[in-house]
């Protein structure tokens, strides 16, 4: 991975810009967004955490995840704040830090299900637009380049073959807790099901914006994908290419 040889010089022109990173689960969005944020001096905002926090609230309230009216009503009594950190985002649900509670398979599945509803999406999009109104952010999700910030200065659509994404997810889960790691086939199956829903929903389906740069990390290490993303942003900023 390239170090930040450009240092402050690189962070200055990037301060107000918006970098949109979209793509399916396990493509490496979070890792790349975190590195880009550090390298170019931007805030890193992970919108999936917001959908996850809302899904957690729906689960706690025992609202059926297909009840669009009840979910819409729930948006009116929910506050979600997202804070960029050095490593991970902190997400506050009605003031409670739920960052550690939103990564399990139940919430993951629920987040994909509640995110199909237009009322939930338009509320989230408003929150996300407010969060990044000042610019100077890398925002990652599924619809950032298409809906949330269609005029973002840089748009990257990150993809990789499902088997590769599933294996990466499995490795990440295993790093945290080997004993409870789900078998890789199951991780790949869940990921395909979630992809299917995220790509085929009527409202803001996961797809590249027409002006997004496509980055397929199937045959790359994450370090290589990070370097490729840095080069894409650097080029947009007119920075000289980093030395290999
Ligand atoms: O990025 P993630 O895996 O944390 O996202 C969880 C779910 O949230 C994902 O399956 C779909 C939904 N999502 C979305 O619809 N739009 C976004 N901008 C971000 C996430």
Automatic annotation (TrEMBL):
SUPFAM superfamilies: P-loop containing nucleoside triphosphate hydrolases (SSF52540). GO terms for biological process: nucleobase-containing small molecule interconversion; pyrimidine nucleotide metabolic process. Keywords: ATP-binding, Cytoplasm, Kinase, Nucleotide-binding, Transferase. GO terms for cellular component: cytosol. Coiled coil: none annotated. Residues 192-212 are annotated as: Disordered. It catalyses: CMP + ATP = CDP + ADP; dCMP + ATP = dCDP + ADP. The keyword ATP-binding applies. Residues 19-228 form the Cytidylate kinase domain. It is an enzyme of class 2 (transferase). Pfam families: Cytidylate_kin. ATP binds at residues 23-31. InterPro entries: Cytidylate_kin, Cytidylate_kinase_dom, P-loop_NTPase. GO terms for molecular function: ATP binding; CMP kinase activity; dCMP kinase activity. Residues 192-204 have a biased composition (Basic and acidic residues). The keyword Transmembrane does not apply. Its EC number is 2.7.4.25. Belongs to the cytidylate kinase family. Type 1 subfamily. This is Cytidylate kinase. It comes from Candidatus Sulfuritelmatomonas gaucii.
């Amino acid at each position: 991975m390239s170090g930040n040889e450009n240092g402050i010089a690189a962070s200055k022109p990037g301060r107000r810009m918006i970098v949109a990173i979209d793509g399916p689960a396990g493509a490496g969005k979070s890792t790349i967004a975190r590195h880009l944020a550090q390298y170019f001096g931007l805030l890193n905002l992970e919108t999936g955490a917001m959908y996850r926090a809302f899904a957690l609230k729906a689960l706690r309230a025992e609202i059926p995840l297909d009840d669009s009216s009840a979910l819409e009503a729930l948006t009116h009594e929910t506050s979600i704040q997202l804070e960029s950190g050095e490593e991970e985002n902190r997400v506050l649900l009605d003031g409670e830090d739920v960052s550690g509670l939103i990564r399990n398979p139940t919430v993951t599945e629920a987040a994909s299900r509640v995110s199909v509803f237009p009322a939930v999406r338009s509320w989230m999009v408003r929150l996300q637009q407010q969060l990044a109104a000042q610019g100077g952010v890398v925002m990652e999700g599924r619809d950032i380049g298409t809906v949330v910030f269609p005029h973002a200065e840089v748009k990257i659509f990150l993809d990789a073959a499902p088997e590769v994404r599933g294996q990466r997810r499995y490795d990440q889960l295993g790093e945290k807790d080997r004993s409870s790691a789900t078998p890789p086939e199951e991780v790949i199956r869940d990921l395909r099901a979630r992809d299917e829903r995220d790509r085929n929903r009527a409202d803001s389906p996961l797809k590249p914006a027409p002006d997004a740069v496509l980055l397929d990390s199937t045959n790359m290490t994450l370090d290589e994908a990070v370097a490729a993303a840095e080069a894409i942003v650097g080029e947009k900023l007119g920075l000289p290419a980093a030395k290999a």
